[in-house]
Amino acid sequence: MLRLLVSLYIVVFASIIAINQGSEAVWRNWVEQAPDDLRHATAVATHYKHALTQLSEEDLTSFFNNETQLTVFPYEDVAWLPEQLEALKNGEIITSFDDTGNALLLFVVNSTSVVQLGPFAPAQSATTKQYTIKFLSFSLLALLLVLWLRPLWVDLVQLKRTSEKLASGSLDLTPTRSRFSAIYTLTQQIEKMALKTASLMSNQKQLVNAVSHELRTPLARLKFALAMLAPKDPEQVAAMEEDVMEMEVLIDEMLSYARLEFANQQLHMQRCDLAHLIQDQIDKLRRTTDKRLVTDITSDIPVKCDPHQLSRVIQNLLQNADKYGQSKIKATLTTHHNMARFIVEDDGPGIPESQREQVFQPFSRLDKSRSKETGGFGLGLAIVSKILSWHGTVCHVGESDLGGAKFTLALPLIAD
């Protein structure tokens, strides 16, 4: 950051000095040295005054009689302003203006006579030139700042693209940076961190694939061995088989959740009828549950989603309600303010308000005993949260009128 501040200070300081010196040079050569009748006449009047003060009274009278460009009159004939009279007595050349706005140059000779030279057209206003120089100066300063900011902008855009790739799970990182950027060291460190993160994500993906193959093989051999031992001790073997099946389910869920880290790269977003997806999952649940299932599904609800992944969300919410509900499950699909709202409620123990955010964390369960009656490993709602994040929404937890938990998700409707 020190490099950034120092470079900005140097660029601004040097630019202001250079532009200021350049503006003064342009002003002297373009404005002050520009042709000006009045300024030229003032120089002529100064020459006349110097020459006339050297003449005698007779020569001066003869000169005025022969010179038609000069007008001579006693200075008492004019009602001078005090400052004008003071300047004339001090031997200065003053400027006055006639009724038409033309300039008159006046000076005193021999302390009695006032010599008038003119009239001359007044000097042109330099306001336009002044504002033109200011505009060009500020434009040049802005251009210099843009040149300084360009490498910084390139690096920031590159960092944005890198972070977007990491967020989407892409590991194809090709960082490029400008050595002239003021944040060169910062971008260097961030890119190292990004490459390290990409390496960790790649290692995680390889670990998931290894677990998928390596753990299933010994589990299969163990199941085969238990099947061979079943005739000798059926009860003991049956309990062991349940433990093996539980381990297999856990591995499946862990692998399923791990694959979600990379699945959003293959999302297939399309127009879907949300009511149809929900009804399919409800029909599946009816075939396996012994609880009363109440539904209120509004038909023809078009949304943009990945139908496979969103069906998984609906299935997990319904299975969660079936797992913890006592006797009744309620599923509702409505529309409100251009949003589709899907609500799943149960009459189970509910979720305390202080733990409603926690249930979406991986391996998080309110039932710490992990009893086989309720089953699960705390990954179902974590999967729901992950998939919904790809769809730009979240699942909210509340209290149901049935006495248990209430899960609500909302998706924007799309135009027909």
TrEMBL record:
Its EC number is 2.7.13.3. GO terms for cellular component: plasma membrane. GO terms for molecular function: ATP binding; phosphorelay sensor kinase activity. It is found in: Cell membrane. It holds the Pfam family HisKA. Residues 210-415 form the Histidine kinase domain. SUPFAM superfamilies: ATPase domain of HSP90 chaperone/DNA topoisomerase II/histidine kinase, Homodimeric domain of signal transducing histidine kinase. It is a multi-pass membrane protein. It catalyses: ATP + protein L-histidine = ADP + protein N-phospho-L-histidine. Keywords: ATP-binding, Cell membrane, Kinase, Membrane, Nucleotide-binding, Phosphoprotein, Transferase. This is histidine kinase.
